[in-house]
Amino acid sequence: MKVEKKLMDLLGNTLKHISVKCIRREKKELYNNMLNKMFLQLITAHKLEGKIDKEQMSNNNDFQILDHNFFAYLEICEKNNRCMFEKQRQVLREIEDLFKLRGYKELPIVIKGVSLFGITNDHRHIKRSKDIDMIYSNPSVLESVLTDIGFKREGDDEISEHEYCMMVREDIIIDVHKYVPILNYSDGIINKSRKADSTDRRIFFESFTRIEKSTLLYPEIAMHSLVSDTLEEIPVPDVHYQILILCANIFRDYVNSHFHFSSGIILAELLDVIELLSHTAFDIEQLISISNNERRTSISFVGYLIFKIFGDNRLAPAIDFDMLYPKFLFWNGTMYLPTQLNEFVYFDSSDFVNSLVSEKIDLSTNDIKSIIPNIEKYNSHGSQHVKLVTLEKKENNLSIKITLINKPIATAADVFEIAFEGKRCCFSFADNDVKIEEKVDGCHIGLIEEPAGYSVIANLPVKAFIAPWKDNAGLFICITRWGDGPLSTAIPVSINIPHS
Predict the structure, then answer these.
(1) How do beta strands 359-362 and 369-371 pair?
(2) Which of 1, 182, 320, 485 has the greatest number of beta carbons closer than 10 A?
């Protein structure tokens, strides 16, 4: 009951936070529609459709502003999730039948997602997902079986280091895993985070290569798996390996989320961990025994989150309470220390930038230029390679001019990233040429030769990064000289720039 109340309080406070963002809507109908839409996006992003007590929420004063359409849509989402789950169970039945028909002694194991239902038989663990994650000792054999039941491989290459392939049949997707990756901070990052001041809202830098990875392979998972009658006798990990795999996935999403919504944390996955802690087979000492040094950070991080957000301290013996958990913002190792609750739940780019030591820029009228001062305080190594950053509003565009002191040498390159609201523009300069890697619609990139160095200009449409009902936004300007470095400059900017 304590967890359910904490969840309702958390969502109620978040709804109030969102309502402030919509308050500038002049018409009540438009305001209500936008508020319902934004809150529904939050619920679905956290995959909470089946975990919310809708009757309790509708009777709670904190949620009276939500209309009947919101709750009706939640009902539809929950029904769709259950229909998808039944399709997935049918696929698992076909996989099991064909493996047995071929005489294989080993069966593939379902990990994450629907595997939790396999040991809890609790419909709250049915979340919105078209994916089934499976791991097997010989991924090519699993691919062959899936092919024979009508699945087709997406692409010829492996998806990632740990994923062998993606198989698709109609609206069902199966990700075939070679192993489960478990990320861990290096000793250097851990030592730095232990010494850090939790009230320090500045960014800092550490080489991204210092994130270390270990692997959890099929044989170890198979030794700690059980057959699930509810998943057509396909094996699933036992409760302790369920928790380990879930924690590893949550921490990996956090590390890899970069400048995106809510640090990659999905509340439903934290609630899944809490449910597993209540399983009759759970033993904290057994969980600790399978958590060697490479695995400890993931479990400690999730234990820290469920204690901080839900007040559940059952993972306390596995938590390193002396450590903070830096979040990587960019591939070059730009990091900061999240400390506020909302940073793990609902944080748009303006919330995020305003929580940091950042530059406050006012471009409330056209043709006003603003030069960002003291750029050196945003440098990774103290040696400045960026000479000047200028922002200017020109009609419905934001113009960002970045001037560098010199050009990169032949074996190096400069990479520019402008990130906002889960989007980014990315372009690079090397061999006297600008190459666009990623951009939003309406973005234009230009190059200006300077006597010593050079300048790039990025023109962004205001509508790309500021919602119509807002006058301000947060964005990150990141410049990295890649060669012997990286040598990085990362500037959080809170900008007042109303629509024309």
Answers:
(1) unpaired
(2) 182
- Strands, DSSP E only, in 194-353? 204-205, 211-216, 225-227, 235-237, 327-328, 334-336
* Per-residue pLDDT tens over the stretch 406-457: 888 878 889 998 888 767 889 998 888 889 988 888 889 989 888 878 999 9
Residue pair 84/129 in contact by the 8 Å Cβ criterion: yes
Q: How far is CA 310 from CA 243, 268, 314, 425, in A?
A: 17, 12, 11, 36
Measured between alpha carbons, how far is residue 226 from residues 3, 89, 229, 249, 352 in Å?
28, 17, 10, 21, 43
Please state the rounded mean pLDDT for residues 72-89: 85
Q: Of 3.30.460.40, 1.10.287.70, 3.90.1150.10, 1.25.40.10, which CATH number belongs to 88-339?
A: 3.30.460.40
Do 132 and 258 touch, CB atoms closer than 8 A?
no
pTM of the model: 0.87
- My answer on whether omega of the bond before 486 falls inside 30° of 0, hence cis, is yes
| Measured torsion, CA atoms of residues 168, 154, 135, 130, in degrees rounded to the nearest 10 | -40
Give the architecture (CATH level 2) of 348-496.
Sandwich (2.60)
| CA–CA gap between residue 404 and residue 234 (Å, rounded) | 58
Mean pLDDT score, 382-400: 84
User: By the 8 A CB rule, do 423 and 436 touch?
Assistant: no
DSSP classification of residue 379:
B
Q: In whole numbers, what is the pLDDT of the chain averaged over residues?
A: 83
Separation between Cα atoms, residue 134 and residue 402, nearest integer Å:
46
Structure tokens at 288: 């600790």
Buried b (16+ CB within 10 A) or exposed e, 278-312: eeeebeeeebbeebeebbbbbbbbbbbbbbebbeb
Asked if residue 337 lies in contact with residue 189, where contact means CB atoms within 8 angstroms, the answer is no
End-to-end CA distance of the chain: 49
18's CB contacts (< 8 A; 6+ apart) are 35, 38, 39, 42, 346
Among all chains, which residue has been given the structure tokens 């550490």?
A: 206
C-alpha closest to that of 460 among 429, 493, 432? 493
Torsion, Cα 337 342 348 351, to 10 degrees, reads -70
